[in-house]
Specification:
This protein is an alpha/beta fold and 213 residues long. Helix 1 crosses helix 9 and helix 2 packs across helix 4. It catalyses: AMP + ATP = 2 ADP. Monomer. Its EC number is 2.7.4.3. Pfam families: ADK.
Length: 213
């Protein structure tokens, strides 16, 4: 099976990706792993990517697309299929992926789209607080400190502040919607309700993938 998994930050994509790989034995291709492997193996695109990263610059799309193509051309993909996680991030990358798959003679069979209400993701992602003295991490809603704690004893990282999280979600929604619609038009998207217990979410995914096998 050749699959994509999509979902907003905090939707549980990473957890479900690991379960899919474990159950269906497809190759898990995450953007970060791909870049690290390409640079470690000094592939043509890996060397090029490193030259940008070393200068503190963003890696251009054509290099990212090239690294994806190198990875999808490897033997384990032909044997077991893949689950692509974290790519494509833009509609331009989605079009590039279409071209890559066509050139390799690979057919995309499904897009798992984990849907969670952005408001609940905002609560989930912006609730982390850290104790100033001990560095211990808590969550205001899901794992609060014991008793009536004093908020002044805790701080939030910039990344965890509601306004930062909301900006990140807004950017992801704006980038992700055209990609979902692109694949929806091809009849590939399977929407999964992500606001459930982890095992229930996976049971829903499993039903979809069993039919695709």
């Amino acid at each position: 099976m050749n699959l994509l998994i999509m979902g907003l930050p905090g939707a549980g994509k990473g957890t479900q990706a690991a379960k899919i790989v474990d159950k269906f034995h497809v190759a898990h291709i995450s953007t970060g792993d791909m870049f690290r492997a390409a640079m470690a193996n000094q592939t043509e695109m890996g060397v090029l990517a490193k030259s940008y990263i070393d200068k503190g610059e963003l890696v251009p799309d054509e290099v990212t697309n090239g690294i994806v193509k190198e990875r999808l051309a490897q033997d384990d993909i032909k044997a077991h299929g893949f689950l692509l996680d974290g790519y494509p991030r833009t509609i331009e990358q989605a079009h590039a992926l279409d071209e890559t798959l066509a050139s390799l003679g690979i057919e995309l069979e499904g897009v798992i789209n984990i849907q969670v209400d952005p408001a609940s993701l905002l609560e989930r992602l912006s609730g982390r607080i850290i104790h100033k003295e001990t560095g211990e991490t808590f969550h205001k809603v899901f794992n609060p400190p014991a008793g009536d704690y004093n908020e002044e004893d805790y701080y939030q990282r910039e990344d965890d502040k509601p306004e930062t999280v909301k900006r990140r979600l807004d950017v992801n929604i704006a980038q992700g919607e055209p990609i979902i619609e692109h694949y929806r038009a091809k009849g590939l998207v399977h929407d999964i309700e992500g606001n459930q217990e982890i095992d229930t979410v996976f049971a829903d995914i499993e039903k979809v993938l069993t039919k695709l096998q």
